[in-house]
Amino acid sequence: MKMRSKIPIRIHHFFWIFAALIGFLMSQSLIGTLIWIVIIFVSVIVHELGHAIMALVFKQNPKIELIAMGGLTSYKGDKLKYWQQFLIVLNGPLFGIFLFLIATLILWLNFFTNPTLVGTIKIFQVVNLFWSIVNLLPVLPMDGGQLLRIVLEAIFGIRGFKIALLIGFIIAAAIALFSFAVRYYLLGALFFLFAFQSFDMYRKSKNITPSDRDDTLAEAFAKAQLLMQEGKKRDAQKILEDLRGKTHQGLIFTQATQLLAFLYYEQKDNKKAYEYLLSVKDRLQEDAVCLLHKLAFEEDNYQIVKDLSASCYKLAPTKEVALINARSFAMLGDAKPAGGWLRTAKEFGQIDISKIINEKYFEKIKEDPIFKNFFSK
User: Fold this and answer.
1) At what angle do helices 335-346 and 302-315 cross, to 10 degrees?
2) For the chain, how long is the longest CA-to-CA vector?
3) DSSP code at position 80
């Protein structure tokens, strides 16, 4: 569902499903479920409008998406200062608190006497107070975590982002454990997810550099990925080479380098693909591991093949990978692993062991008793 306005709003089907699930768990009735859906929808949309309206104040182009786990407001425009980012994030919880105050005022003035309506307003009051408080906890990706990130990043730069992730992980893990202990399983599951996300991002953040936090560079990389999906690989290649020249290190550099390596490999420029992957060999994604493994063997870099042997075979357990491993270990004079990998290759069938042993790769070790023992039985 899409709503056309100054602020585009898109509502995913899973938002309604998740809202209905929460409503049923809380009310155990059809009418109660419908009431909860309305409460959740109004609360979330007003919260996100708080972010979006403040983004408009700073001449950004915001859009709102309501997804399974809540709402998401994103915006495009000129780069914002940290204090502007802070106000955009803060305005969401402030709108939630405003809803709480409105509900409190209505209840205090006794505008309504209908028990169902009064009960609904009380739920609305509690939900907005509770979620506004929870949402301000310093845990990413919630608003409190974003506020902490902005402050720390303004003070410490990229190091502040990493500190925010670590703090968020510790707090989220503690809340998850406490919630499970007191049998608030839904809340516990939510914060367990946040803790896992924060820990995973913290682990990956070791390679993050200031250039990775540059929106212009991130948008350029996203554009290159889109061009590749559209088959415009030459245009993507130009953008990726430009990014590689501007970044020199970090996640964007690593990802651009790996994509370029695959492009050069498709263009039959194996040597350049090898050189690019070798420059980021300690930060390879899974799909690049076996390509470097293959290219390193072609370039007679048997030590790299050795280093990648187990991880590549785990990703692609094939006869070809086992043979490359066997030949490389043999060239390095490592008789035992060479024999083990060759026997692994033999298990796939259709292989002439006597012919392979007489290849140049095995000259150093073919008479070694340890190696011969693998095939003596």
Assistant:
1) 40
2) 96
3) P
Q: How far is CA 118 from CA 19, 106, 198, in A?
A: 21, 9, 40
Helix (H) or strand (E) holding 72: strand 70-76
d(CA 202, CA 225): 24
Q: What is the pLDDT of residues 1-54, one digit of tens each?
A: 555 567 888 888 888 988 898 888 888 888 889 999 999 999 999 999 999 999
Residue 146: its H or E element? helix 143-156
| Residue the block writes with tokens 């089907």 | 13
- Distance in angstroms (rounded) separating the CA atoms of residues 377 and 373: 8
Q: How many CA atoms lie within 13 A of 301 on its CB side?
A: 16
Per DSSP, the three-state class of 126 is helix
Is the CB of residue 126 less than 8 Å from the CB of residue 107? no
Q: Is 214 helix (H, G, I), strand (E, B) or coil?
A: coil
CA distance 40 to 123: 10
Residue spans per domain, the chain: 1-136, 138-207, 209-283, 297-377
Which three-class secondary structure state does DSSP give residue 58?
coil
CB 202 within 8 A of CB 149: no
76: buried, middle or exposed (CB in 10 Å: 19+, 13-18, 0-12)? Answer: exposed
CB 374 within 8 A of CB 340: yes
Asked whether the beta carbons of 198 and 174 are under 8 A apart, the reply is no
For 262-307, the pLDDT digits (tens) are 999 999 999 999 999 999 998 888 889 999 999 999 999 999 999 9
For tokens 């048997």, what's the residue?
302
Helix (H) or strand (E) holding 132: helix 115-135
Whether residue 152 contacts residue 163, with contact meaning beta carbons closer than 8 Å, is answered with yes
For the CA atoms of 324, 330, 335, 341, the dihedral, rounded to the nearest 10 degrees, stands at 10
Copy the structure tokens of residue 78.
């000129």
Terminal CA-to-CA distance of the chain, rounded, Å?
68
